[in-house]
Design goal:
mainly alpha, two-stranded antiparallel sheet, 3% strand, globular
């Protein structure tokens, strides 16, 4: 069991980023980290989910998911190298974290998109692709909780890293964790293509369809407006 916890990123972390950062803006000054220097898993499972994501997600959402992988790996490598998980598990979480936002999936259920997305990820990984159950559940939990932002309690390692990387790409949060040259290289390979306006529209669509949605917990106007006013990513949008 303990091996599953380490392999698949189940170790608990504070949900408050300031705690894991020790009250500082970063653990160390970030250095450039390129797409070429960052390994992407090429296992059969990783390839299957990569193909699935390319097919099911819009180009804008797929590019966002890949940026989240590369930014997350830069944060992991440089700020938290002792965090334990397989790169495959993190890649799966990145590629599936927004699966609930597709036109087909967002209107297929009354559930909030993260929760529905987590169930879809669990079914796909465990039933169709026969991933280890501990890995499938880790990905599902991270997907469900990737917008569960807060300062109390705990979250899994994969879950926190996914939060940090998505907030970085979506709102420019914790900008001191990733070097500007990393942003330049990652966006060159996976362009934003007006991602800020695209994702803000998705937030408003979710909240319009489901006024009870978990996304409203981030602020019905504050969240989409924060995405639209992402000054860090504005030059790359």
């Amino acid at each position: 069991m303990s091996n599953d916890i380490e392999l698949y990123g189940w170790e608990e972390k504070s949900r408050d980023p300031s705690v894991v950062l020790g009250g500082k803006k970063n653990i160390k000054d970030p250095e450039p980290q390129t797409v070429a220097s960052t390994k992407v898993p090429d296992s059969p499972l990783a390839k299957s989910i990569l193909q699935y994501a390319e097919k099911e997600l819009s180009t804008q959402t797929f590019n966002h998911s890949m940026r989240v992988y590369y930014y997350g790996k830069a944060i992991h490598t440089q700020q938290f190298p002792d965090w334990r998980f397989t790169d495959e598990t993190y890649l799966l979480a990145c590629l599936l974290h927004d699966i609930g936002t597709t036109d087909k999936n967002i209107s297929a259920t009354k559930m909030s998109f993260e929760f529905h997305g987590g169930l879809l990820a669990l079914e796909l990984l465990s039933t169709e692709l026969y991933a280890p159950i501990a890995q499938a559940e880790s990905v599902a939990e991270a997907v469900i909780r990737h917008q569960d932002i807060g300062e109390t309690g705990k979250i899994t390692t994969i879950g926190l890293l996914l939060q940090l990387a998505t907030i970085f790409d979506n709102m420019g949060g914790h900008e001191e964790l990733v070097h500007k040259e990393t942003i330049q290289d990652v966006t060159r390979h996976y362009p934003r293509n007006k991602w800020s306006s695209c994702f803000a529209a998705t937030i408003r669509k979710e909240n319009g369809l489901k006024p009870w949605a978990h996304t409203t917990a981030l602020g019905e106007e504050d969240f989409p407006n924060g995405v639209l006013n992402n000054k860090l990513m504005e030059p790359f949008d």
